[in-house]
């Protein structure tokens, strides 16, 4: 049997987001790899530990490792990310290479492994370097699902597509022809820089977690309130993750 790596989507911080498939995959794993680093990663690692304590019925060999920090001083965003992924890839190669030939390693991936998460891309690089292993993905609840569920709203309007983008991209303006836009990875409060005319926002931070915050309304009315709440929460907790849906109404 070749080594296997299973990526388990764990949802957005509520241990009850884990699927039965995820619980079973966790139970079968021989070793768990847990990334740590900085205040945000420490909080996320705490959620992962809680998941293990809650669902795993027998001891689990857990390897915690400090993720390299991305060089944000690099002027070229893509080059910075590529270099960072290469460093992480080397780290994974060493850890996977140290696994027994028939062992299964698990990674608890925030949300869903397929959405704004580079673990799958990084593991492809590891394989490209000649380290053999098979891969299995267990889907998880994404931040955007957690957001729409928290507000009890549909993601799309009838028959229309949805655009999923980042704060960095939104800074360049409203996506052409879009009606519903989900924004993730926005450390710059890009919503506050948009022309707010005709836009409604549903904003959530720490969605699914104890600290959950939700604000919604016409963007023109609530943008400042969200910006202040975001700054305050970030200062209080030392980190923040937020996601929002903008819709033309
Ligand atoms: C690196 S991406 C990971 C996305 C994840 N794979 C998913 O499926 O949701 C991190 C971004 O996801 C969003 N996010 C993740 N967890 C969140 C939460 N509990 N509350 C609000 N936003 C969250 C934020 O936009 C954050 O910047």
Structural features, described:
- With about 250 residues, this protein is of the alpha/beta class.
- It has helices at about 20-30, 40-55, 75-95, 120-130, 145-150, 165-170, 220-235; strands at about 5-10, 30-35, 60-65, 105-110, 135-140, 160-165, 180-185, 200-205, 215-220, 240-249.
- The strands form two sheets. The chain has a five-stranded parallel β-sheet with strand order 3-2-4-1-5. Strands 6-7-10-8-9 form a five-stranded mixed β-sheet, with helices on both faces.
- Strand 6, helix 6 and strand 7 (about 180-185) form a beta-alpha-beta unit.
- The longest helix has 21 residues, at about 75-95.
- The structure holds S-adenosylmethionine (SAM).
- S-adenosylmethionine (SAM) binds near residues 184, 205, 208 and 242.
Structural topology:
Blueprint: E1 4-9, H1 20-28, E2 31-36, H2 38-55, E3 61-66, H3 77-97, E4 104-109, H4 119-128, E5 134-138, H5 143-151, E6 162-166, H6 167-170, E7 180-184, E8 199-205, E9 213-218, H7 219-237, E10 242-248
Helix pairs in contact: 3-4
The structure holds S-adenosylmethionine.
The site of S-adenosylmethionine has 21 residues, from β8 and β10.
């Amino acid at each position: 049997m070749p080594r296997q790596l299973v990526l388990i989507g764990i949802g957005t911080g509520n241990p009850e987001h884990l699927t039965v498939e995820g619980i079973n995959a966790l139970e079968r794993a021989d070793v768990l790899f847990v990334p740590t680093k900085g205040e945000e990663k420490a909080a996320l690692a705490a959620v992962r530990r809680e998941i293990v304590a809650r669902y795993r019925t027998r001891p689990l060999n857990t390897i915690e490792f400090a993720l390299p920090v991305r060089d944000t001083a690099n002027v070229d965003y893509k080059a910075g990310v590529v270099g960072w992924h290469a460093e992480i890839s080397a780290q994974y190669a060493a850890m996977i290479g140290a696994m027994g030939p028939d062992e299964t390693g698990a990674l608890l991936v925030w949300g869903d492994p397929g959405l704004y998460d580079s673990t799958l891309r990084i593991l492809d690089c590891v394989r490209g370097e000649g380290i053999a292993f098979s891969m299995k993905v267990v889907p998880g609840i994404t931040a955007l699902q957690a957001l729409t569920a928290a507000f009890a709203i549909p993601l799309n309007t009838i028959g229309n597509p949805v655009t999923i983008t980042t704060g960095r991209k939104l800074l360049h303006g409203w996506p052409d022809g879009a009606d519903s836009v989900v924004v993730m990875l926005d450390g710059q409060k890009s919503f506050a820089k948009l022309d707010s005319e005709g836009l409604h926002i549903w904003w959530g931070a720490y969605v699914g977690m104890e600290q959950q915050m939700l604000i919604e309304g016409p963007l023109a009315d609530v943008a400042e309130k969200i910006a202040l709440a975001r700054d305050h929460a970030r200062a209080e907790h030392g980190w923040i993750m937020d996601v929002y849906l903008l819709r033309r109404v």
